[in-house]
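How it folds
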Amino acid sequence: RELQAFLRERLYQHPEVLRERRKAEMVLEGLFATYVGHPEILPKEVQGRIPEEGLERAVCDYLAGMTDRFALEAYRRLFP
């Protein structure tokens, strides 16, 4: 229990960790909404999966395959 409390206080709920989590959520939510609203900007191979998988699933899979750096770069291109 002491270890759990320590980790929660010093790691999981640390303000810096929470800031980074909010930043990641903002990036992913922005990318998801943009790609769902404008699927024509998705890579062709992702667009090709939409009829079978559905738009939202194809976008989720695309986002899940992104590295942090790639996602941030995509976000910065879309939201300069």
